[in-house]
Amino acid sequence: MSNHSEVANHATRLRPVIRLFVSSTFSDLKAERDALQKRVFPKLEQLCLKEHFQFQAIDLRWGVPTEAGLDHRTMRICFEELRRSQDVSPEPNFLILLGDRYGWRPLPEEISQDEFRKLEEAAKLLDGNRPAKTHGDALTRWYQLDENIIVPTYVFQRREKPQPDEMDRADYTVAEVWRDVEQGLWRIINHEAAFPASGLKDRFATPRPADAALPGIARFQTSATEQEIWCGALNVANAKDHVLAFFREIDLPKEIEDAEPLRDFLDVVSGKNDRGPKSALDELKAEIRKRLGDNAIELKPKAKLTIVVPTEDPKNVSDAKPKFTAVISIDHIDLLCKEVEERLTKLIRRQIDEYWKYPKSTEETSSDKTPEQTAQQRAARELEIEQNEHHRFGKERGSKDSFVGRAKQIKSILEYIENDSRLPCVVHGASGCGKTALLARVVQEILKARSAIVRYIGVTPRSSDLRSLLRSLCQELRLTNPIAEALSSDIRELMQEFRKHLDAATEQHPITLMIDAVDQLAEADNGRQLFWIPFGELPSSVKIVLSCLSDRDEKDPVGHPYVAAQRRRLPDLNMLSLDALSPADASALLFEKWLKSAGRTVTENQRALIELRLQPEPCRQPLYLKLLFEEVKLWRSYDDHVYLNEPESQNETEAAAKTRDSSNRYVGALLNQLFDRLRMDANHGSLLVNRALGYIAAARRGLTETEILEVLFADREVRRMILQTSIDRKHRMAFRPRRIPVSLWSRLRSDLAPYLTERAAPGGSVVTFYHRQVAEWIQTEFVTNSNWTQLDHDESQDHPHARLARFFAKQDYFLESLEEQRARARRLPPTPRPSNIRKVDELPWQLLEVAKLYGKDDPKSPHWDTVAALFTDINFLESKAEATE
User: Fold this and answer.
1) How many CB atoms lie within 10 A of CB 113?
2) What number of other Cβ atoms are within 10 A of residue 829's Cβ?
3) Which of 816, 838, 741 is nearest to 57 (CA)?
4) Quick one: pLDDT at residue 339?
5) What's the CA gap between 550 and 767, in Å, rounded?
6) Strand 153-156 vs strand 143-146: parallel, antiparallel, or unpaired?
7) Residue 369 confidence (pLDDT) above 70
8) N or C: which end of the chain has fewer CB within 10 A?
9) Is the peptide bond before 92 cis (omega within 30 degrees of 0)?
10) Closest by alpha carbon to 448, among 371, 354, 512, 526?
11) Do domains 17-104+222-302+331-350 and 372-578 have the same CATH topology?
């Protein structure tokens, strides 16, 4: 059963990101959330950007109602987003807004077998001796036992339209039809033999540890907001130091004859203000005050409601009773914005100082360190961040709990590290064969006995091109072999210093370099030719292990590292090839490692289908197995039919089955199956999936989450779709939004999570694809072969590269105006304006891609004029120079 326990706050901040989860009810606090989105969060974003941090406000109630989900995953996605906030941003990560409405209570997505038995008993009592077992039938219809969960659990079934051959069935996507079902299920839950609301009164009686699961009664009877608050505040260690709560109360008369017009602000049942939810809300507020102390703030003055009488419509000939509405006063909103901004600013500044560990703030008023000392401290911290990022990445990819096989290759590399070989060792194979996981696993073994310098190319900006890589390596090598001169940026001087460090290695201070995916080095400086690795024998105390692709044509730049390695005529013991896993290892990895760690299994028939698929060699490559795992872990034991897409070609010879094309077809078949499902109208629809993935794939290094939300809103078709959805749901969008509602992206990201990763990039942490082969397939499917052109539009203007170029072009080059810089210079020593690093990194690359696509070999093309204009723009050059510094 899913356990929505709080993940204890981590002491270590993984990335320079402040991710704030905003928890509130929906309709009654719209004005407050809109004010924060408009007046506060943009200021906090700018504060963070100036200090090379990112600020992300995750408000799943903003923009569209989350209760509209047909798949009952609302709470699961809320908890996933909350956990991500807690993982990425230990402090602050949670903001509570509460009014006079307790809010929507979700039916539980999963229930245990013991809980189901209690519900069954309640349903029997409700049905009595009546022949039609209405409640019992509804319970078994909507909750089905999934025995593919290791602890078998009953799962809430999706609301769906009837199929063409099921026209006698009800359409449960219709709100009115579903409301009847929902009320019947609530009658079962509320029965005294099951989980009545009266059990809520004792939910705070017993203190609970910081990592405890939600109380059982809370899962059945508390609102969505209270469940979030349990996991974001009540079950969190040291919450009073960084969680903020704001209470807004309405000045209501003691008796309200007709509460129907106040439905958006109170819990109204049959036209009356329901006292049950009000009691639960009062208890919740009292507990929050107890836990958060001074960080639980009452907003004054109390808000007032004004009943608005609709004007008579002469066209309305209906006798229906006119609908009265209520409008809330906003005097308290100024205090809310002021308090949120001031308190979060203080918390964020503290986190920035703790993360960077040196005076970095543009608001720093004094320092007892010289500029040289500050620069040294900055360099040391940046190196520490670089090292941590690579070791974190390696632990994720090479975890012992998710690794099988490769015993021969692991043994060979460990023997190479200890033997007297003085040549590099190269691990090579096809894309998706598990080179990164192998090196990561070997590193974990090496670090038990000796130190190693590890770089996974492309994981950070300082490991993406040769110049940055050599600077980073030399900086780390200086820790044991200090050099007084400043570290150069010249590629030749960096190579010379790198070789000096290698020559300085001794038996007491050996050097072990583990560099993964050298084929992913940028083409600049010809790093893929491996000329920077010394030719001939290495110094006696130096070991260098590289990995690269070996399934590419030698004319393909990505294949150059393998060609360069072959030219060195390394002995066979130093050229380790990775083939597909054995059938036994592939089966163990999928069934005994991955599925088991996910708490899942499969039925006998499903296992037979999977094992049949594992027979072809391309299906035993780790990448294919990973994609297969992500698909089959969604299978339920009660699914009538499960299948796995076949590759396009079925006529493969044994030799062809070993080729890269064969592997790509099998991987592509699974990815097609995934994205066909996601693009269904019942899930996310083609437009949102195609555009979100297309923009990420078209970006140079990926996009930040904020950029994803903004570039999707800048897309005319996506914006039109969102506005139409709001109209269909009778919901009014916020005034002049700049982004799509984060809930749309959160739902999509939840489904895409296994295929995405976050990496450090210039100017921020970006979302990109976790594997090269997946990225290449998505690039082909959603960018190269996808037609983005609208009717009568210029194709070159509608291409995703052109759209991203326009998106970044509209941004400012600097994160501070000249006036702000001058004002700061009157208080502090003059310093440059902070650069918009994301713009100067992405914009030229996007313009060049457009020029290469549509300017081709024509030097007179206007697309090349655009590139030339950018490279001669003094603002771009100044901002680029500052960003490089």
Assistant:
1) 12
2) 8
3) 741
4) 97
5) 27
6) antiparallel
7) no
8) C
9) yes
10) 512
11) yes
What are the backbone angles phi and psi of residue 425, rounded to the nearest 5°? -115, 130
Q: What is the pLDDT of residue 822?
A: 82
Per-residue model confidence (pLDDT) at position 322: 56
3-state secondary structure 713-732: HHCHHHHHHHHHHHHHCCCC
8-state DSSP, 738: S
Predicted local distance difference test score (pLDDT) of residue 7: 37
Beginning with the edge strand found earlier in the chain, give each strand of the sheet holding 153-156 in spatial order: 110-111, 153-156, 143-146
- Are the CB atoms for 808 and 879 separated by under 8 Å? no
Q: Which long-range contacts (CB under 8 A, 24 or more apart) does 583-588 make?
A: 583/614, 583/615, 583/620, 585/404, 585/405, 585/620, 586/614, 586/619, 586/620, 586/625, 587/611, 587/614, 588/404, 588/405
- What is the pLDDT averaged over residues 103-132? 94
Q: How far apart are CA 78 and CA 86, in angstroms?
A: 12
Phi, psi of 505 (to 5 degrees): -65, 140
Distance CA 114, CA 424 (A): 60
DSSP run (H or E) holding 326:
strand 325-328
In order of 135, 213, 304, the CA distances from 119 in angstroms are 10, 21, 42
**The two structure tokens encoding residue 837:** 């690093």
Q: Mapped to the 3 state alphabet, what secondary structure does 642-696 carry?
A: CCCCCCCCCCCCCCHHHCHHHHHHHHHHHHHHHHHHHCCCCCCCHHHHHHHHHHH
* Dihedral of alpha carbons 524, 528, 530, 531, sign: negative
Length of the chain: 885
* CA nearest neighbour of 702 among 426, 534, 460: 460
Domain layout of the chain by residue ranges: 17-104+222-302+331-350, 110-200, 372-578, 583-678, 806-885
Is 242 a residue whose pLDDT tops 70? yes
- Mean pLDDT value across residues 458-469: 92
Q: What is the CATH number of domain 372-578?
A: 3.40.50.300
Handedness of CA 199, 203, 209, 211 (dihedral sign): positive
Give the containing element (helix H, strand E) for 776. Answer: helix 772-779
Q: How many CA atoms lie within 13 A of 51 on its CB side?
A: 30
Phi, psi of 141 (to 5 degrees): -70, -40
Find where tokens 């090598």 sit: 477
Q: Residue 74, by phi and psi: left (phi above 0), alpha (psi -120 to 50) or beta?
A: alpha
Question: Would you give the distance in Å from CA 876 to the centre of its chain?
Answer: 31
End-to-end CA distance of the chain: 51
Characterize the bridge pairing of strands 244-247 and 296-298: parallel
**Position 363 pLDDT exceeds 50:** yes
Q: Pick from 682, 735, 707: which is nearest to 62 by CA?
A: 735
Q: What contacts 112, CB < 8 A, 6 or more positions away?
A: 1, 151, 153, 154
Beta bridge partners of 111: 154
Residue type, 666: Y
**Which of these ranges, 4-8, 131-135, 270-274, has the smallest mean pLDDT?**
4-8
Nearest C-alpha neighbor of 699 from the set 716, 681, 686, 712: 712
Peptide bond into 301 cis (omega under 30): yes
* Tokens representing residue 706 in the block: 């904020």
Is the CB of residue 795 less than 8 Å from the CB of residue 789? yes
Query: Is residue 366 predicted with pLDDT exceeding 50?
Result: no
Tens digit of each residue's pLDDT (9 = 90 or more) over 684-724: 999 999 999 999 999 999 999 999 999 999 999 999 998 88
CA 157 to chain centre: 26
CA 449 to centroid of chain Cα atoms: 35
Q: Are 775 and 769 in contact (CB under 8 A)?
A: yes
User: 17-104+222-302+331-350 maps to which CATH number?
Assistant: 3.40.50
